[in-house]
Specification:
Blueprint lengths: L6 E12 L2 H21 L2 E12 L12 E10 L2 H15 L6 E13 L14 H17 L38
Antiparallel strand pairs: 1-4, 2-3, 2-4
Helix pairs in contact: 1-2
InterPro entries: DNA_pol_Y-fam_lit_finger_sf (IPR036775), DNA_pol_Y-fam_little_finger (IPR017961), DUF4113 (IPR025188)
Organism: Mucilaginibacter litoreus
Protein name: DUF4113 domain-containing protein
Length: about 180
């Protein structure tokens, strides 16, 4: 197994400015799910999450806003459900109307091996159901394609698009990218 990361992040710029909380929540939920998957892939759990928003620092005609919040999780987790819930709640705490947001992201730190979770003597914690559900989610998505099964918070119809201006052509996997010669 590869060396365990000290931090895991998922972020992406939007294709256009986003002002509605709902679209930003969907993107943040998608990033939380990506972070959770990466944590499970390396058999780790996170103790701390940082959620952030960015406006376009290069556009001086717009008001600037770079809020972020760091949340210490009660118990280390890699559950998609828990991470999504925490991230969306944190996003609601930092989001402010009236700004043209261009980027959102989720960063997990305080990463520990999944088998080394420290429990609290006074408060029980059983995440076995969430672990089974996350494992099933991973199996179905591995079998039928990424994002086939996802959290409702990620949205059904994405009304926001990631900025993919410099995306490489997929000559071997997409019929539309095959080069045609005459």
């Amino acid at each position: 197994m590869a060396e365990r990361s000290k931090g895991i992040e998922s972020s992406q710029s939007f294709n256009t400015y986003q002002t509605a909380l709902e679209q930003i929540e969907e993107a943040t939920a998608m990033h939380a799910a990506t972070v959770a998957l990466k944590l499970r892939q390396q058999r780790s759990m996170a103790l701390t999450l940082t959620i952030y928003l960015r406006t376009n620092k290069h556009n001086i005609t717009h008001d600037q806003h770079y809020p972020s919040i760091t949340v210490k999780v009660s118990f280390a987790t890699n559950s998609t459900q828990e991470l999504t819930k925490i991230c969306v709640q944190a996003l609601r705490a930092i989001w402010q109307p009236g700004y043209n947001y261009l980027k959102t992201g989720v960063r997990a730190t305080g990463i520990i091996p999944a088998g080394e979770v420290q429990f609290n003597l006074f408060r029980g914690y059983d995440n076995s159901k969430q672990q089974k559900l996350s494992g099933l989610l991973d199996e179905i998505n591995a079998r039928y394609g990424r994002g086939v099964l996802r959290m409702a918070a990620e949205g059904y119809e994405k009304r926001w698009v990631m900025k993919q201006k410099f995306l490489s052509k997929q000559y071997t996997t997409d019929w539309r990218d095959i080069v045609v010669t005459k």
